[in-house]
Amino acid sequence: MTLNSGSLGALGNKVGGPAYDRTAVRPGIVHFGVGGFHRAHQAMYLDRLMNDGKALDWGIAGVGVMPADRRMADVMKAQDCLYTLVVKHPDGTLEPRVIGSIVEYLFAPDDPEAVLARMADPQTRIVSLTITEGGYHVHQVTGELDTSDAGLAADLVEGATPISVFGFVVEALARRRAAGVPPFTVMSCDNIPGNGHVARKMLTSFARLKDPELADWVEREVRFPNSMVDRITPVTADADRDALADRFGVEDGWPVVCEPFTQWVLEDDFGAGRPPYEEVGVQLVHDVEPYELMKLRLLNASHQALCYLGYLAGYRYAHEVCQDKLFVDFLLGYMDEEGTPTLPEVPGVDLFRYKRQLIERFANPEVRDTLARLCAESSDRIPKWLLPVIREQLAAGRGIDRAALVVASWARYAEGVDEQGEPIEVVDRLRDKLVERAQRNREDPLVFISDPDLFGDLAADERFVAAYRSSLSSLHERGARATLEGLAG
C-alpha cells in the first residue's frame, strides 16, 4: 500500500491512523524545519488532539527553505503530507501510526509568496521552529546576532524576497502589522538554553536592521514562549522503510522512527491562542528553565560525552556505547559530579531516576542512533550544552575532569582520523576551520581551544587548560578506552 489520502482506509489493524476528517483540518501553525524530530514530536501531539476531535483549526503548514528540503517537499506532495511514525521499543516491538496533522507543505524557493501569504493569514496564529542550534545566528561568545550568514545579508537588502527563516518571519510580521492583523506567536522548539528568549533577541535584532519601528512592535507585541523538547529520533534508514513495508504493508517514502519516551515542557505564553496541549501530555509551566537546563546539561551534554569517545574507541551506535560498563560509569560520573551540581531544583523530577533512565534510553538497541549523527554540528552544540557546565564548575571550584575530557575528545575527533587510521567524516558548518586547527593538536596542544569565537577565554584558565591538555595527550598516546580506564582508576 503506497501511503496517501486515498489509501488510508486500507491500513491494516496493526497500523493506527487519523480518526478525524483531514479535509476539515485548517492550518493554524506554520512550521519551519519539517524533519524527523518535528514529525515525531510536535506534529504527533497535535495528531493526538485531533484524534480526540480537538484542535482541528490548528493544522500544520510545513515550510522548507533549504535546497535539501526539496526531497521532503516531494515526499509530502506524493503522500498528501501523511507519514508513518514508528515507535521502536527495546524488545524489538514496532508500533506504527500514520500521522495526519501536517496538511500542507510549502517549498519556499519555488514560491516564497505562498509562504508569506500563509504566514500573513489571520488563521495562522503560531509560527514554530526546529531550525537547529545554528539557525538562530547567535555569536557563540558575544551572544549577539551574527550577520555573517549570506542568507541574512541577502534578506537585509531593501525590497529583497526572503530566502532565510528570519527573512520570512520578519517580512510576515511586517505585513501583519501593516494590515492591522495581530502577530503570531513564535514558538522555538530547538535545543538552546532559553530558546524563546534567544528567538526573541535574534529576530528582533534582525528586524531592527531592516526597520527600527517594526522591531519595536515585535519587541512589544510578539510572544516567544520557551520550551524543552525531548525524544530521541535517529535518521531514518532504508532498513526502516523496508521493515514498514515488509511487516505492515505500508510503503512510505520517509517514515520517522523514534524511541517510546517523549516529553514537552512549554511556557504558557501565547498571544493568539494555542491548542489544548495539556490534554495530551504536554507540561504547561510558567518557568521552563529548570527543565531545560536538566535536559541540555544531562541528556544533550551526555550525548556529547559518549559520541566522540565512543567513535574513537570503535563504536558506531549509541546503544553499543551504553552497553559498555566503562562508558556508562563515565557518563554517570559526568552527570552526577559535574552536570547535576550546576542545576537548579527541577520541580516534580527525581534527578537520580532521570539520569538512570537516560542510560536506559541511550542503550535501546532498536533505536540504532548513530554516533555520527551525535557528533555532527559540534560547534553549535558544545558551546551551548557543555561549556556552561565547565564555566560554572570552575567558578565554584568543583571538578571538571570529565567535561574537559569530552572537549578533548571533540578536538581529537576533529583531526579526521580514528584510532585505527580510518578517515572520519567531520560534519560541521565550521568544518574547515575545526579540522585545520585540530590537525595541529600534536604540535600545539592548545590550538583547538584557542578559538575565542567558540571557547571565549577558557584557554586562559589554568585549571581547565591543565585538565584538557592531560586528556588530549592521553587520547593521543593511549587512546579513548585506556584514557577512560585511567580516569576511572
From TrEMBL:
PROSITE patterns: MANNITOL_DHGENASE (PS00974)
Residue ranges occupied by any Mannitol dehydrogenase C-terminal domain in the UniProt entry: 287-475
InterPro entries: 6-PGluconate_DH-like_C_sf (IPR008927), 6PGD_dom2 (IPR013328), Mannitol_DH (IPR000669), Mannitol_DH/Oxidoreductase (IPR050988), Mannitol_DH_C (IPR013118), Mannitol_DH_CS (IPR023027), Mannitol_DH_N (IPR013131), NAD(P)-bd_dom_sf (IPR036291)
Annotated GO MF terms: mannitol-1-phosphate 5-dehydrogenase activity
Reaction equation(s) it catalyzes: D-mannitol 1-phosphate + NAD(+) = beta-D-fructose 6-phosphate + NADH + H(+)
Family label: Belongs to the mannitol dehydrogenase family. UxuB subfamily.
Protein name (Swiss-Prot/TrEMBL): Mannitol-1-phosphate 5-dehydrogenase
Organism per entry: Kribbella caucasensis
